[in-house]
Structure formats: structure tokens, C-alpha cells
């Protein structure tokens, strides 16, 4: 049974001021825009006249950014390099009102970055021609990990919820994961994890967000039917001792499986043209945990996150959703 429009409107009100801690792999999405000027004489490649450069918050930084634009009081925790990408992430989050004191800057490793070179001409459509990724494959040093863990455990006394955003880049070490989740359980702080590659290692988390492809990869099997999807989701919930799993399915919407046996299917909120799915999962996680921690039911929180994600996918690139946009959409759906 779906939550009522009144429940959803009330859930939107739950977002404002809810204190959420976001921990994870902070990614700098860097866009280099260039105008095509000619073909190089050195090699058969385009020569671009640089027109601009911008840094967008990606990965866990996008979760923090979305949580802030949705009205939450957000503190971000992670590792940045002492470089332009790190400075760019910190600046973007600070402008959004995110507390960045938990972002540790280090010269030991670069900021995780994805640099996209965008080329276009006066009479041509701009398009991405190459992406350059940079990150350290070395594990966090014990000094960095211990400092991050200490700051995290101290901050728990001042937050209403915790998001663990794991893109597989090593910020959330085993020690940090285990001690943080144990402390959250002890204090009654709700948690959610969105992990691209290692979701089954987050034992003790309250809620899990996965897309259907990630869930299939986690169990190394095909999930071609709703029955198979539900079986895997319930297996994951039981294995982690979680309260529920939120599974996103693209154009098929979302499904929420709760530990008490409840199952909810949420169709997409808007079937108009989808421009870009980049970062929509981050929007989903941010909206869900803010609503849940603010007092909404898991179902209402899921439906609200579905609406927020529907707004995000109609924007180009990694995008955020504002509380005003979400409020307008809920009112629109109310007829």
C-alpha cells in the first residue's frame, strides 16, 4: 500500500534540518570544455581551445551535496588530496552549507578524480571525447585511518543518521566500517549503505541501497525475474542483519523489502524524457535517509526518494535536487 500524498508532504518537511553524516569516497568530477579549432599536425587528433573548467561533487561528495540542497544539516567525512580536485570538492560543498571539517587533506594520495574532456564547435554539438581517471590503489595509512575514525566517532553524538557511500576506493576501511556501525547501533543512529562492489561486508547496517545490477553482481547470479530479485534482496537483508533493502530498477522504479516480510513496489514517478542517470542513486540515498531520520516511515521515505531521483535524472550530468523542487513535484502529483 502506497503512502498518501499527505504522508509524502509531511515527509518533505522531515528533511529540513535533519543532521546527517556522510562518509565515503569523495570524487571530483572535473569537466574541461574546449572548442574544436583544427586537426593537430603532430597526430590525427583534435586541437581544442580551452574554454573553461569546472569541478562537480561526485561519489560520496554528491550524496552530501544532495542532502544539503534537500535541506539537511550535513557533515562530510572522507579523504582529499592536496590538489585542485580536492579544493574544488571542498569549495562546492562549503557553498552548499556542508560542514567539511571531516574532510582530511593529505599529500599521501591524490583526490579521486574523473576528468572529462568535452569538445564542441560553433556548428557542432558538444560531446565527451575522453575521460581520465585518477586515484590511489594503496590502502589508507594507519595514521589517516585512525584520525578519520576518531573524528567520525566523535561526530556521532551530533547527528541523526549516517550514510556510507562506498565506491570501492578504500576510504571505508574494515576497521572504520565495523566500529562505526557498532557505535551507530549502540546509539540508535539509523544507517544506510550504498556500495558499488562490497555491500555484503557491511554487517550491522540498517538499510541497504543497491541497483539491480549491483545486487546481481554481489551474489554472482542472474536476477531476471522479480522473484529472483526478491530472493537476493531478502538474502542480503538477513545476511547483514538489516531492516530493509531498497533496490532501484531504472525505468521499472524501485522495490523496498523489509525484514518483517513487507514488500513494496514503487513505479517511476514521472515517465517524461530521462536525460542523464548520473548520480541519481546518490539523490535517492540522500532523500531516503533524511526522510527516515526525520520521522517518515520506510515506505514514505522510499517514495520520496523515488520522486527526488526522478527529478535528478531529467538534469544533465551529476546533479542535485532542491527541497523546493521536491515540494513542487509532490504538490504536482497530488493533482
TrEMBL record:
SUPFAM superfamilies: Ribokinase-like. Pfam families: PfkB (PF00294). Residues 18-320 form the Carbohydrate kinase PfkB domain. One of its GO terms (molecular function) is heptose-1-phosphate adenylyltransferase activity. InterPro entries: Carboh/pur_kinase_PfkB_CS, PfkB_dom, RfaE_dom_I, Ribokinase-like. Keywords: Kinase, Transferase. GO terms for cellular component: cytosol. This is PfkB domain protein. It comes from Selenomonas sputigena (strain ATCC 35185 / DSM 20758 / CCUG 44933 / VPI D19B-28). The lineage of its organism: Bacteria, Bacillati, Bacillota, Negativicutes, Selenomonadales.
